[in-house]
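[Help] Beginner question about ligand-bound structures

Sorry if this is basic. My supervisor gave me a protein sequence and a SMILES string for fe (ii) ion and asked me to "get the holo structure". I don't really know what that means in practice or what format the answer should be in. Inputs are pasted below exactly as I got them.
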Amino acid sequence: MKKTTDAGNGQGTRKVEAKSSAAEGLKELFIDGLKDIVYAERALLKALPKMMNNASEPKLKAAIEDHIAVTEGQVQRLEQVFEILGESNRGKKCEAIEGLIKEGESIMEETEVGPVRDAGIIAASQKIEHYEIASYGTLAAFANTLGETEIVALLEATLAEEKEADALLTESAYNSINFEAAEEDEN
Ligand SMILES: [Fe+2]
Ligand SMILES: [Fe+2]
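Answer (accepted):
No worries, everyone starts somewhere. Holo just means with the ligand present. The predicted complex, written as structure tokens, is below.
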């Protein structure tokens, strides 16, 4: 009988072969995740000033400026985590954040300065915040499972800041920017 679908035995459904450097235990997976997020935070420290300079609405500008300062503290917290673990704080390239930052850059290129670009900057920033929230949520859970209580507290402090940043962005979107952006459509 002729097969109509490849599901279940196609290339894409095969188990992925692990690299020789693959993490063996949760601890290693945890450290890999920390290296990913420290890379992401450092990349954001370079990318956020451009977003701030491209924002027009003063509250949005201020929110991004504030988050740059908060991000510096988050990098320091992660460095503390590496110190507790006795690991180097060198990051490992995070493809996800590179992609999210690139998306933010293209949103800026594709919009005129003003409320529409602001709406685009909020959209891109919220995707970034959600990536961070997912990452820190997972890492805090891993730290908890590993019994690293001091690290749990550090990661949860950052997680709370990321959630706050996300809420602030939602607020600025609802408060004016999206409405003004919609008005631009009518003009
Ligand atoms: Fe962050
Ligand atoms: Fe953030």
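A couple of things worth pointing out: Residues 41, 71, 74, 132, 162 surround fe (ii) ion (ligand 1) (CB under 6 Å). Residues 24-186 form a domain with the Ferritin fold (CATH 1.20.1260.10). Feel free to follow up in the thread.
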